[in-house]
Design goal:
By secondary structure, the chain is an alpha+beta fold. It has 6 helices and 11 strands.
Length: 300
């Protein structure tokens, strides 16, 4: 009882009213000769009861306890040992593949002839996207003008002019492209198709799709050799690219570091001595940025 009254007195809404009422009752109680004193006492009891009820209501409304919510536990991730390796979507063993025709339909496309007896020499799975108007009729990485209506594509690590079959894993539609450019420079995407190639495998409207790449021809070994660089970006502000360039020049004194402007912003490129692949990989693994991304890119 006293604890509830004390809690009532602590509420801001009723404290002033209770203090005024208490002073009035004490004043009447000090006058025993007053003929209305019994009624005052009666009224005091009624008023105390009323204020007590109002106080409980205000306490209940003003200090609601938070409702406990049942949150389902997060799903458990598959357990991995400390030495387990992430599953790779890239298969490089040529012996793992039969003739390309045994893996699905294969046919020549305008500008590209494919030997029906060709064998897959390298394969990779990931996401494809496409690029078109902003790059149309501009120079591609292999020196040719990019034509969005030709069956070409961009890939970061395959030798230039490699012939690749693209299989949309969602609908099994296939096409064949020639690698003429570098990219895509976004997350987990592995190939940027031309507009024509994207339409051929139904990537044009969705924008992206999970695909399998089957390399049918390559002018140079895929896993060894080659000339390589690390490309970083894109940066919105040129000053950020210049700042990173200076930092990399201080860190890698023997490397060539340049910055340049591209369609999507400013980029920084690092080329180690002799464009060696393994040394380039070390720079790639040691480089981290807060804006854009870091990509290991083949030059030839």
């Amino acid at each position: 009882m006293f604890r509830l009254i004390d809690q009532l007195l602590r509420t801001r809404q009723n404290q002033a009213a209770l203090e005024l009422f208490t002073q009035h009752v004490m004043h009447l109680s000090a006058r025993p000769g007053n003929a209305d004193f019994p009624f005052v006492c009666l009224r005091r009891g009624v008023l105390v009861a009323c204020l007590f009820t109002i106080g409980l209501f205000s306490i209940g409304c003003g200090h609601k306890k938070p409702t406990a919510r049942k949150v389902p536990p997060s799903p458990r991730l598959p357990s991995q040992s400390a030495h387990s390796k992430p599953k790779k979507d890239t298969v490089t063993e040529a012996k793992d593949f039969p003739y390309a025709s045994d893996l699905g339909s294969i046919a020549s496309v305008p500008g590209i002839h494919v030997d029906p007896k060709a064998k897959v020499i390298w394969s990779e799975m990931g996401y494809a996207s496409w690029y078109g108007p902003n790059y149309h009729n501009k120079k591609a990485a292999n020196g040719e003008l990019y034509d969005q209506n030709e069956m070409t594509a961009a890939h970061n690590t395959l030798p230039m002019n490699s012939i690749v079959r693209v299989v949309n894993l969602q609908n099994n539609q296939t096409t064949v492209v020639r690698i003429t450019d570098r990219g895509p420079f976004i997350g987990d995407r592995i190939i940027d198709l031309s507009l024509a190639a994207a339409k051929d495998v139904n990537v044009y409207l969705p924008g992206t799709a999970r695909v399998r790449l089957d390399v049918l021809e390559a002018p140079h070994p895929i896993e060894t050799g080659g000339r390589w660089c690390v490309q970083i970006g894109a940066f919105k502000e040129q000053s950020n690219a210049i700042r990173l360039k200076q930092h990399l020049l201080d860190r890698y004194a023997d490397a060539q570091v340049m910055h340049f402007k591209g369609p999507t912003g400013y980029w920084v490129r690092i080329r180690v001595t002799k464009d060696d692949k393994e040394n380039t990989r070390k720079v790639f693994e040691q480089t981290r940025v807060n804006e854009g991304g870091v990509f290991m890119v083949r030059l030839d």
